[in-house]
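EI: anyone free to look at a 378-residue chain?
SC: sure, send it
EI:
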Amino acid sequence: MMVEFTVEKQALEAALKVVGKAVSGRPTMPVLKMVLMDAVEGVLRLRATDLDLDVTAKVEARVRKPGKVCLPVKKMAAVVAKLGDDSLEFKKASESEIEMVAGSARFTLKTIDPDEFPPFANVESDSEISENQGELRDRIRAVAYAQSRDEGRYVLCGVKLETAGSCIRLVATDGRRLAVSGRNFPIEVNADRGIVLMTKMIDVIEGLCDEEESLSMCWDDRRTVVKLTVGEKLENAGLLGSVVIGGRLIEARYPDWKEAHPGALDHVVEVARKAFQEILEREALMCDPDHQKVCLSFAENRLTVSAGGAYFGKVEDFLPIEWEGGELRIAFNPAFLIDVLAGSEAETVKLRLQGELSPMVIRTDECSECVVMPLRLA
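SC: here you go
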């Protein structure tokens, strides 16, 4: 382990935060608590993994002796965050220790053999797409809430990414709601290819996406690799080039989500998104803890929202709408409606309905909609 280099504190801190997203709270092996720091000419490359997810970032460094070192990523991030703005100097102290000097502070840090660190799993495939990071981030936010959190339904604990040519469509469902979002990719158009990304990888991609920059994605039958061009915020913090995210795919067969989509529905009504969300959030507080339900009553020029139970009493509120036809009453879990509305920034949303036992479709923009299954009124 012949290694000696100097790196700026701000850059190292930013890189540790980025790669630390790959480390799980309960790693299965000690080496999975580590960050692999690889110092080569002018660059320090940092990488962390939990075997399912792998994140790599680069920062500028003054490398005097190239080499690799493995250090505990979360402990390093905590220590570096408490240091001043001095440059940090690293050099070998012994076979199992490395010295870090920061201003007047001198640390001797325990290391492990870098050869024990798991190798990066390359993807060999001609399947590759490119996308604007901000666009993909918006599509993720439009569907991510609908993923299942039930580990017993493993295949639904992620987001399906479908492609047709250069177009991308994201799909998520937990069996009670279905969210779909795809620019220039109508629901009726079949996909050429599809993969299912794990929830943890989706969360990391969303958190790192920059409004203006691009990304590329490639995959094979088992893994995918995403390269995100470093945006202004991370660049200012000291990161270089691209952040590379590798992840294991969910290999089980995803259900045919189109079978759950109701298609055309008789009634379409437009409501103010923020006002509707605020009413639902208030009324959800009045629902019994074990019986979350709000009732929507559509009638001429009025949407009445009511809720209540044995514990807290009742509440009723309304929104002005344009409605044609007779009265229609339908009930939902308020959290399912709030999730859809909270993930949108639109002024208004469109509700499409058929009857009290049919699902409702909430269209938040021209690219995104969510199908929500109703509850029984009685």
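EI: Residues 353 and 360 are 5 Å apart (CA to CA).
SC: 👍
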